[in-house]
Amino acid sequence: MYTYLGICLLGIVALMVTPYGLLDASSEGKYYGTATLVAIDANGEETLRSVTHNRVTDVGEEYLLDQVFQEVGNVAAIDTAQIGSICIAEGTITETEGATAGGFDTANTMILTADDNCIEADVNVAGNDGKAVLGPLTFIDDIHLVTGDVINGIGICSANAVGSITPYDNCLTGNTGAGVLFAVVNTTDVTINAGESVEITYTFDISSIND
Amino acid sequence: MVKQSKIFLVIVIVIFIVGIVYAINSETLLNSILRETILPVEWEKVHPREIVKNSIPITIIEEKNDICMVKALKFDAIIDHKFFIKGNELASKLNHDRENQTIEIKCDQLVEEKSRFNVWYVTDDSLVYAERYEYFISSWNVTDPHPP
């Protein structure tokens, strides 16, 4: 009886001490992007702060590699319009790698209104520890969206090729019909009431562990 | 014979106790199970892309037996997000009243009259701590707090 009990306990001990390393995911060198969304009420008070990771689209990955590496016959493929805009969205936004600017706009019910849901940012990556930061950009009720709109998605898009920093409507045609949806973010839903606004910052981080 | 068995069992119990202490403090199967289920999330071991961080202001409405009912506008937006698999579990734990937009927490957790209520969770596709979440309360003025 005691012997059997002892053997059982030994078996349990053997299981317990079986080496099993916890994967330290933080050490992975994967690039990633996050959107920080801050909802602000009509009195200027913060009502929600949310940091959510993005999904870089296939088109976005290709665009990134194209801009950095592509060169055929000593001709580099350079698009003068960088990824420099944030577009807010309401609707059934596809958050998959296959998402495109056209699909993003089609699903986005905000572009049915007269308001301009995309804002272009100035982006300076020099000396920024491997990070590109767009924003913070402020989307204001009655300017960039209509009262009652629910922001539930964010598109990171090409800057407006026209070169204007004036807000504009939609991801694809904002860049003379050739806009790229670099990444999409499924945000915490935020309903914008009269006088409210949302401040959005997008950070794309390719820094290594030691920056 | 019985005496020998008893001695064997005593030795095994000692090994068992030493084994538990070792298993809890080392990279072992037991340690892994405890970390994935009970022990606090080690956030620095989760890749940033797999962490969703939310915070909202909370203000005290009513205090009863050390439990404070607080106004938590937009708490429903946090728990309703499709990435937050265990959002309803948290809502239930905090007695969330969706209609009145309130939750209940221990009064001694509150930092000040208007505090920052933080909810961090790990997405379900993470290799570590998948679907785990933690909430904590911090000073309202600190916009980027870390779990204590």
Please work out how many helical segments of chain B DSSP would assign.
Answer: 4
* Separate helix tally of chain A: 3
CA gyration radius of chain A, whole angstroms: 23 Å
What is the H/E string of chain B?
HHEEHHEEE
Global outline of chain B: elongated
Strand content of chain A: 25-35%
**Ranges of chain A with pLDDT <50 over ≥5 residues?**
none
Q: Largest interface, with Cβ-Cβ < 8 Å? A: A-B, 42 and 49 residues
Provide an overview of this structure.
The complex is a heterodimer of chains A (about 210) and B (about 150). With about 210 residues, chain A is α+β, with helices and mostly antiparallel strands. Chain A is built from three helices and eleven strands; from the N terminus they run H-E-E-E-H-E-E-E-H-E-E-E-E-E. Helices cover about 15% and strands about 35% of the residues of chain A. A five-stranded antiparallel beta sheet of chain A has the order 3-10-9-6-7. A four-stranded antiparallel beta sheet of chain A has the order 2-1-11-8, with no helix packed on it. Chain A is extended, with a radius of gyration of 23 Å. The termini of chain A are far apart. In chain A, about 40% of the residues are buried. The model of chain A has no long low-confidence stretch (mean pLDDT about 85). Chain B is α+β, with helices and mostly antiparallel strands. Chain B has two domains: about 35 residues, no CATH class; about 100 residues, no CATH class. Helix content of chain B is about 30%, strand content about 25%. Chain B has a five-stranded antiparallel beta sheet with strand order 3-2-1-4-5, with no helix packed on it. In chain B, a hairpin with a 2-residue loop joins strand 1 and strand 2. Chain B is elongated. The termini of chain B are far apart. Classes of the chains: A alpha+beta (about 210), B alpha+beta (about 150). The interface between A and B is large, with 42 and 49 residues. Strand 2 of chain A pairs antiparallel with strand 1 of chain B, so a sheet runs across the interface.
